[in-house]
Amino acid sequence: MDKKSVIGFVVIGVILVVWMVWTSKMQKPVEQKKQQTQENVQDTTKQKVQETKQVEVQKTENDSARQNAMNDRYGIYFSLNAAGSANDSSAAREKVMYVDNAKYRFVFSDFGGSLKEVYMKGFKTWDGHPVQLVDWKRDRELNLLFTSKDGKSINTRDLVFNSVYREHQAVDIEKDTSFTLKYELLVNGDSSKKIIKSYKFKPDSYEFSVAYEFVNPGQFIADGKYQVVWGSSLNLTEYRSDEEAQFSEAFAFMGGELEQMTPKDFDKEVNNDLNGNTDYVSLRNKYFGVFIIPDSRKGDGAYLTENKIHLPNDGSRHLFSAAVKMDIKNGASEKSTFRILITPIDYKILKSYDLELEKTMRFSLDFIVRPIAQYMIIPFFNFLHLFISNWGLVIIVFAIVLKILLNPLTKKQTQSMQKMGTLNPKITAIKEKYKDDPQKMNSAVMKLYKEEGINPMGGCLPLLLQLPILYALFAVFRSTIELRQAEFIWWIKDLSAPDVLFHLPFKIPLFGIDQISGLATLMGITMFIQQKMTVTDPKQKSMVYMMPVLMTLLFFSLPSGLNLYYFVFNLLSIGQQYYTTKIRPPKPEEIKKPVKPSFMQKIMEKMQQQQKQIQKRKR
Questions:
Q1: 419 pairs with which residues across the strands?
Q2: For strand 513-517 and strand 299-311, is the pairing parallel, antiparallel, or unpaired?
């Protein structure tokens, strides 16, 4: 390997390191302070229970005062249930009901006629609890926001709707596919002015629909506008809140463009008021998302808010809200239907809607990574998974297939490096001869390359082509729902997270990590063997140790799926290199076989010709 090839390796490595550090903050150990974390979870749970009890007591003791205060605040009277009135203190207690299908369990409340909780069946949080996505502190979503005739801002989450279902009634949609959940709010007790919310469900889907119907809205809504609001971020589901925060975003898809909100500063709320045809708004965390999709007609705009707050133990959380803005077209009667999708961030599911929902699957270096991830890696992974149930084996097969596809490039790389090795004595002689004239030295070296038919970039080209694939793999392994909590073998329990063997009693300087990953260590060993087999120049021996150590330390904090891929790919490369150098080395005539000048060679030749012409003119 000549000096230029080594420089190419170093540059590629530096680019990789900088990008990885930029896109992924150094991971803290998954098992660090486990006991303390469990205590924090227990404390949080106790706090939640205490707050819930306090809320229930307050509801029971102060229903009448609450109703009167709400009536004074909003200037709107509301019915509570079929038998009650606004003055029934007992009727103001919250009444919930449950809707189940194969994908979820929904909990609805007559407070706001809203969605109180949503449990995703088949998914667990990092600590083994069912995934519940509605923010438990706020706990009511899909509400309406508008301005009343007297100029007050009305959020229907604060109002109690009429409903005819029994308290704690449960409905199984797979058995009762025609069920419709209906809520009604009378304005000033007048049945001629009201809001009706109707929910319809599907037996085996993450989607349901909600229809908002206004009777005589022109008599109680001031500006002929309203918003359908999801008012808070989705609950956190992963161990590392700061890493999960990197994936939390709010979106509005309008006019074929995706508007996004990504917090940058702590404790600084930012609002984005958008106007125009709106296809959907969305919120997401690392693995789950909610989409509000106007169905009867497109929305008339979107309103997004974002903020970023600190959490204990160096954690953080991104706070979002998203709303679709709707214009009221008829002051006597208005009805709009929305499709609500609360789903894992799964490319197949999002793509199936043909609404470009998959654009919310954001990646670092999106313009490079997205095409590779969405059109190559994810579809091929899913194809392999049809026949192979273990995702770790899928990654191994993927590495083998990719190695086969890249074999022609790797072969050219090996041949180029071997040719460069035969020229080292001649190149050394040229450098010694023209050591005081860099221009003549470069010209002589390029002439030698041309005479020998060598492409000086041939050793680096395969690496450059693999780099975007490596970036895409990093993004896929880090955020794809299929790999979330997917076990491989032995200690590897989650292919989307580092496989931690043990923790050090200290942090490694500069890298800030104190965890040792088994697969990253194996990957580093195979990289060392590769370097040992490749680097023969004594002046470049430091490369044998520097790059493997550097990459191993960096990969300690990366997903185990990525380390598994890289480890297998390195093993295959070692086997290929051993075969081509020991078992079947190239014949002398193959080494000397000329190749066409590369693009870079042509550019260098043109530059040299231009320099010669300039020098002639000066003479």
A1: none
A2: unpaired
